[in-house]
Write a structure and sequence with these properties.
Elements (H helix, E strand, L loop, with lengths): L1 H20 L3 H4 E8 L4 E8 L4 E4 L13 E8 L9 E3 L3 E5 L14 E5 L4 H4 L3 E2 L4 H4 L3 E7 L5 E10 L4 E4 L10 E4 L8 E9 L5 E5 L2 H9 L5
Parallel strand pairs: 8-13
Antiparallel strand pairs: 1-2, 1-4, 2-3, 3-7, 4-5, 6-7, 9-10, 9-12, 10-11, 11-14, 12-13, 13-14
Bound molecules: zinc ion (ZN).
């Protein structure tokens, strides 16, 4: 009887502590293979931030040159990793963007999101997210999780600076992985917190990021990203 109680206690401890300990940012981050209606194609990065929601840049969803929407996207979570395992999703989702680039590319509103019909997050896990204040992000080190053009996973540490209430600048350009989550650590939170997405390089070898504002967060919530 005593042994059974000990076993139950051990099981209880395992289940309550497993979630944060087993979170794998690689698996919660998707390599995106994108084809647009105009015939263009691209690759990028997106990150799960809820059971149903993925955050990325707008130009992974809408062609930045021709302003045409995606025709197809394959999301590969945990790409090219035997340890993480892979999960591929290419249907059953809807997407929203904050710029459709009708007047050419502009990084200021280069953010968008995807809501999957199925709770993809149950198998990938997901990052924490909320809108961050200027003081949360100014001169703060961030981890960026991204895939390069060949789909190889990488992480890079970046020093953040505030450009405006919509944009941040990174001290280094990750050179690939546009749409990648910009994450900070927060006291009392076991998960990295996504505060924006990497959008494009500046002319000085730095990178711009679009902030995840309250507006974006509330829209995602309204569209069922966190349900
Ligand atoms: Zn195009």
């Amino acid at each position: 009887m005593k042994r059974i109680i000990v076993l139950i206690l051990v099981l209880l401890l395992c289940t309550t502590s497993a979630t944060a300990a087993s979170f794998d940012p690689h698996k919660a981050t998707a390599y995106m293979d994108i084809k647009f209606e105009c015939g263009c194609w691209g690759t990028g990065t997106g990150a799960m931030v809820g059971r149903h929601g993925l955050i990325t840049c707008a130009h992974n969803l809408c062609c930045p040159t021709h302003g045409k929407w995606y025709k197809s996207i394959t999301f590969v979570f945990g790409a090219k990793s035997a340890n993480s395992g892979q999960k591929k999703v290419s249907s059953g989702f809807q997407a929203w963007v904050y710029d459709t680039f009708q007047n050419g590319y502009n990084s200021e509103d280069d953010i968008g999101y995807v809501v999957f019909n199925k709770p993809i997050g149950d198998s990938t896990g997901w990052f924490a997210t909320h809108a961050a204040s200027d003081t949360d992000v100014e001169f703060t080190f961030a981890n960026v999780y991204f895939y390069d053009l060949e789909g190889h996973y990488n992480t890079v540490q970046q020093l953040l600076n505030v450009v405006s209430d919509k944009q941040l600048v990174l001290d280094k350009n990750p050179f690939a992985g546009e749409g990648a989550p910009i994450t900070i650590r927060e006291q009392g939170n076991d998960y990295p917190v996504v505060v924006g997405v990497y959008t494009n390089p500046t002319g000085y070898g730095e990178g711009f990021a679009r902030r995840l504002t309250n507006n974006v967060f509330n829209d995602m919530e309204g569209d069922g990203a966190f349900r």
